[in-house]
């Protein structure tokens, strides 16, 4: 059923004469014989040796595809022969050549065409894959055509307009990307490790980690769904780059006032520009009919000079960016959630905003404070979106606002930092609110799917928990005493869940007074602190 053929190279050598050693292909019998005869004629005693490093396993059977596979040792060849015979005797047909006929670049392209459009991050994944293909000397894929041809793209992509490719590589090219031209069967963990080492010299480790996410997804799909035979995933054993990019940037001093003032000036400039365009409407039409670019620019320039003063006197101020910043600070919404919010999803009467799609894929509602309701009510409804500004437009405006407010370089403030500021403020506000806030309350506010993501805010809940503990122990109806130890009764206002969801208990005093004992007794846990006794 299956046969093994030794196709290892033949080595001809002479003792103590390494310079005479030559290696021949297994089928080069004439060349081997001629070289041996020549050495003998010179008085040497040549020795022939098979390197035993290349074996061909061939499986031929009626009703099954012919397989021709190669291994680098006799043992591996025997194991493969036995495996094929066992599978075929059980009626299992596996095309082991498929992994050798398919390059890793083929898998990347298939992933981009079939799987990536199902993800909200299709555009970003497409840029990364096209960059890798380009660095490997392969043609880039047309993302607009891929999206148009996909039968079931992500809901957010159905009406998305893809950017036109510029053909330019934004970042530094990667030499290590050329491994994608290898067959899937030949890709090994070292290929990914070399890629990681090289890319970490050019970009942040977090960027490389997201690129490795794509490689991992491709390998898993190839093995599990596309059924491309592979003994072991080439990603096994690959160590991702380690990094810590968690930011703890808070607004301090007069930074918020400076930020809002800069946003006000940006809105003012935008409002004046809009009013100027309204006044220049006739001149714009005249310029569009001009025959030359020179004349068109001349008409526009004259109109700007003519109407500039009037535009500054008669413009209507629209606080778009200022309201957006206040919205992010008061709701803790993400940038994409705010920019995608429509008027139909906003209910100013009930002070709520519905977000049908969030980062974690689950819908949630935002709570709108009264101060924010007034700001939102003052915005004009000239678009379906509450904040009709694109990501690129916001990025450019934020750069100008940050520079004007002096929030750059070492004092840099990012848009996402406003979300962190909003959640931190809510956590701190719980300390001054009856009952306080737990991490579960913060989860409802922030929209995090996993409360572990909120542990960075746990220390901000400590003060509110201390006040609740004081209130519980001061209430005689919730405290009992047993053998001189004060304990909370079952059903007390502070439950185990509050402790777990808020913050760990503070450490015991370093030098407690004699016989001083602090005990918290909850339904299933008893915690006691005291002199010479900690449990």
Description:
The protein is of the alpha+beta class and 535 residues long. The protein has four domains: 2-96, no CATH class; 101-224, no CATH class; 255-411, hpI Integrase, Chain A (Orthogonal Bundle), CATH 1.10.443; 464-534, no CATH class. Helices cover 44% and strands 12% of the residues. The chain has helices at 29-41, 74-89, 98-101, 104-115, 122-135, 143-149, 189-199, 205-224, 255-279, 281-288, 293-314, 320-331, 335-339, 370-377, 391-405, 417-429, 439-446, 462-474, 496-502, and strands at residues 2-6, 10-14, 17-24, 47-50, 55-59, 67-71, 346-347, 352-355, 364-367, 479-482, 485-488, 517-521, 526-530, 533-534. The strands form five sheets. Strands 1-5-6 form a three-stranded antiparallel beta sheet, with helices on one face. It has a three-stranded antiparallel beta sheet with strand order 3-2-4, with helices on one face. A three-stranded antiparallel beta sheet has the order 7-8-9, with no helix packed on it. Strand 2 and strand 3 (17-24) form a beta hairpin. Helix 9 runs antiparallel to helix 12 and helix 10 (281-288) packs antiparallel against helix 11. The chain is extended. 21% of the residues are buried.
SSE inventory with pairings:
Elements (H helix, E strand, L loop, with lengths): L1 E5 L3 E5 L2 E8 L4 H13 L5 E4 L4 E5 L7 E5 L2 H16 L8 H4 L2 H12 L6 H14 L7 H7 L39 H11 L5 H20 L30 H25 L1 H8 L4 H22 L5 H12 L3 H5 L6 E2 L4 E4 L8 E4 L2 H8 L13 H15 L11 H13 L9 H8 L15 H13 L4 E4 L2 E4 L7 H7 L14 E5 L4 E5 L2 E2 L1
Antiparallel strand pairs: 1-5, 2-3, 2-4, 5-6, 7-8, 8-9, 10-11, 12-13, 13-14
């Amino acid at each position: 059923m299956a046969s093994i053929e030794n196709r290892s190279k033949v080595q001809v050598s002479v003792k103590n004469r390494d310079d005479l050693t030559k290696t021949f292909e297994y089928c080069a019998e004439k060349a081997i014989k001629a070289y041996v005869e020549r050495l003998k004629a010179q008085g040497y005693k040549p020795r022939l040796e098979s390197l035993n490093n290349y074996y061909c396993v061939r499986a031929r059977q009626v009703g099954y595809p012919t397989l021709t596979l190669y291994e680098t040792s006799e043992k591996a060849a025997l194991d493969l022969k036995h495996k094929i015979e066992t599978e075929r005797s059980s009626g299992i047909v596996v095309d082991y050549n498929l992994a050798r006929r398919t390059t890793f670049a083929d898998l990347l392209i298939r992933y981009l065409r079939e799987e990536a459009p199902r993800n909200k991050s299709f555009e970003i994944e497409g840029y990364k894959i096209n960059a890798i293909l380009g660095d490997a000397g392969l043609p880039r894929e047309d993302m607009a055509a891929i999206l148009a041809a996909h039968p079931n793209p992500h809901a957010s992509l159905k009406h998305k307009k893809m950017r036109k490719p510029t053909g330019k590589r934004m970042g530094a090219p990667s030499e290590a990307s050329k491994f994608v031209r290898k067959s899937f069967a030949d890709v090994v963990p070292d290929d990914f490790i070399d890629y990681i080492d090289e890319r970490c010299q050019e970009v942040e480790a977090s960027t490389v980690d997201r690129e490795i996410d794509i490689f991992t997804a491709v390998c898993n799909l190839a093995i599990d769904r596309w059924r491309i035979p592979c003994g072991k995933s080439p990603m096994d054993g690959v160590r991702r780059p380690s990094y810590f990019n968690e930011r703890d940037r808070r607004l301090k001093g007069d930074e918020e006032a400076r930020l809002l003032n800069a946003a006000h000036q940006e809105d003012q400039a935008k409002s004046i520009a809009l009013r100027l365009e309204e006044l220049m409407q006739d001149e714009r039409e005249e310029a569009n009919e001009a025959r030359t670019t020179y004349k068109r620019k001349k008409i526009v320039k004259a109109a700007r000079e003519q109407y500039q003063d009037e535009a500054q006197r008669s413009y209507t101020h629209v606080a778009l960016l200022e309201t957006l910043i206040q919205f992010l600070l008061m709701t803790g919404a993400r940038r994409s959630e705010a920019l995608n919010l429509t008027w139909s999803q906003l209910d100013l009467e009930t002070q709520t905003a519905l977000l049908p799609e969030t980062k974690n894929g689950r819908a949630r509602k935002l709570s709108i404070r009264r101060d924010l309701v007034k700001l939102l009510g003052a915005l004009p409804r000239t678009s379906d979106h509450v904040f009709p500004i694109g990501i690129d437009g916001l990025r450019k405006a934020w750069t100008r606002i940050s520079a004007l407010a002096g929030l750059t370089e070492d004092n840099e403030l990012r848009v996402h930092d406003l979300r962190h500021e909003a959640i931190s403020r809510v956590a701190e506000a719980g300390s001054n609110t009856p009952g306080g806030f737990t991490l579960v309350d913060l989860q409802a506010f922030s929209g995090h799917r996993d409360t572990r993501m909120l542990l960075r805010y746990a220390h901000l809940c400590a003060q509110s928990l201390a006040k609740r503990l004081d209130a519980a122990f001061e209430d005689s109806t919730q405290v009992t005493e047993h053998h001189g130890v004060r304990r909370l009764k079952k059903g007390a206002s502070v439950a185990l869940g509050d402790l777990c969801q808020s913050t760990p208990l503070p450490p015991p005093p370093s030098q407690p007074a004699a016989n001083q004992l602090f005990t918290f007794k909850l339904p299933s846990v008893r915690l006691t602190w005291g002199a010479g006794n900690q449990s």
